[in-house]
Amino acid sequence: MNQFINRKENAVTEAIDGVLAASGGALSRLDGYPHIRVVLRSDWDKGKVALVSGGGSGHEPAHIGFVGKGMLTAAVCGDVFASPSVDAILAGILAVTGPAGCLLIVKNYTGDRLNFGLAAERARAYGLNVSMVIVDDDIALPDLPQARGVAGTLFVHKIAGALAESGADLDTIANAARKVISGTSTIGMSLDTCTVPGSPKEHRIPEGHAELGLGIHGEAGVEQIVHSDARSAVAAMVERLQAAMEDKPHVVLVNNLGGTSILEMSILMHELAQSAIADRIVHLIGPAPMMTSLDMRGFSVSVYPADKAELELLSRPVALPAWPGVTAVRPVNVLALPDGLTPISPLPSRHDATRQFLLACCNLLIDAEKDLNALDAKSGDGDTGSTLAGAARALIQALDRLPLSDHTQLFRAIGQELSQTMGGSSGVLLAIFFAAAGDGASSGLSIREALKAGLARMQEIGGAQIGDRTMVDALSPALDALDASIGAASKAARDGANLTATLVRARAGRAAYINAKQLEGHIDPGAEAVARLFEHLARHPDMLGRQPEGAAAVAG
Description:
Layout: H1 11-21, E1 27-29, E2 38-41, E3 50-57, E4 74-80, H2 86-96, E5 102-107, H3 110-125, E6 130-135, H4 153-165, H5 170-183, E7 185-190, E8 209-212, E9 223-226, H6 230-244, E10 250-256, H7 262-273, E11 281-288, E12 298-304, H8 308-315, E13 326-328, H9 352-367, H10 369-379, H11 384-398, H12 407-421, H13 424-442, H14 447-462, H15 472-481, H16 486-500, H17 516-519, H18 525-539, H19 551-555
Parallel strand pairs: 3-4, 3-5, 5-6, 10-11
Antiparallel strand pairs: 1-2, 2-4, 7-8, 7-12, 8-9, 10-12, 11-13
């Protein structure tokens, strides 16, 4: 089992009790486990209109996470992706409905419609005033006679909840809910299907593709499209949303379907703020997991043209951690760097051969990205290739700003560029290396000695020595052999890199936390990068003759 559950039969009841235990007493549940699973406000006195929602579990925090003052009065929980029973829904209605009546907020799935509808009829037979609204905000499958209810349901929960809390009557709340439903549009996208507890995972979406318009129960969407990046994913969704949106300000709800990282959600938000509907998006809810599909690696976007009164209702604060609140969408605010931190740019100079030389070295690192990441995954966090490739791309962009005809200043300029563009300790160490090499060259040292001075400074500050399983194991012997020939330096670098595969204890970097069994047989990615650069130079010795003195050493 690759999930943190006990028995699948107990997953929902145990999850509910976990939420209750963390609620500080704000939430209670009805007796009746395991068939009746109703969570309600502990402070409810039946003095106002009650709001009841629910459906299958697996969409957490919906619906339990939105039970509280200003939103839902009770949530009725079914099994994972299955509607609760009529008796469970009726129990919830009876537990919270007073003279003011009750509004059922139901998503447009057959099981939910039938079970909530029959429960409403039975409740009316008890003399209770019960209304029901059906949410059908999904626009992915326009030809369906009954569109699905998805994350746009949360607009209804919040606006209806704020009205109920203010004392509005049932008709007013129901009419407001129907208005929100009629104007809400939602579409989702995912890179993978979800994993239902205790069931085998369905591998329906091919690698390199995304499914557009899939439902919150993992049901298939409108189409599978080639996935290249966040921008194209958002653009595909916006194309559908745009056709359903009025030309007026909208509130957008950006919902994590459960398995998308916060980093990815922030990038998707960035793209949405640059998209074709950006000028119509004035307020935001999220990005946050609000109506999930277990661990689905996707997201959904819901839009609603809220008027001033509705925006005020959406913005009313509630003490519910699951509700992220409403924020105004504003342009990114950029402040100037503090005095002293703005880098001093070197005086650029042209030298076409040096430019081509550096370009070739950078392209080699970019081409090696996947290989170096794979090596780093064995001994670190799997990003060495991406870090070096990112720095190489930045250096390519900076080529026309560099003093290419003056290698002394070029060392320093490369160091400065790396300090700004490379993340983590490797960026700092290489920036120190090149800056110190530039200092050495300007003080009259030969190129090899200047580079060795840079290495010594890098070792002094970083602490890595030969045998510590770092790039030093390849770089140090390569520089020692550089006077003999570039071929000798290349061989020394490769021998040093290969040696790291036999070192089962690292004394620097993240590999220091990895056990010997995992390290054995795997070359350190930093050392591999150094070896590949020197091997590239050895294969193309003609490049070295076209450089100003020492330029070949820059690649080292």
